[in-house]
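pasting for ref
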Amino acid sequence: MKRILVAGITGAGKTTMAQALAARLQLPFHEMDALKFTGPQWASNPDLHQQVSTISATPGWVFDSFGYPEVRDLLWTHADTVVWLDYPRSVIMPRILRRSLRRTLLRERIFGGNVETLTGWFRSDHPAWWAWSQHGARRSEIDRRTQDPHFAPLHVIRFRSPRRADAWLRTLSGAGSGTPRADG
């Protein structure tokens, strides 16, 4: 486990898991949204592909993402492990609602200095609406990729509950750690 993608739907806890994995395995952590959104009005980074290409060519990293379309195959081709946080909507939705509500009310600055706004809650691309509407499609796409022979060397670790993911994470220690099996 040296090049790790933490995949799942918005609100699954990908960033939290990826940061914890990176710390335990002593690997660099990369936040995909921070790389993608580099300016106000959610401006996209024109150099995203080049930056991700450079990072993915290094010997070790952890990304908190399934990958945006323009870099998805690049990441999946270079990764050796996918940690899939495959949680039901009943877990995801309270998390995403709390996070977005906090960000909106406190005007927290995120990715490129942007903030979630009250009017943003009424857009179809708001994280809460997106997580609800895309849950099944994202799950199917991750499942398809984990079965795709093109990505056959990948080690897939799938969690269906945060409790199991947390328990697995506690079993990891230090660089070069083995990869305990999990599918629960």
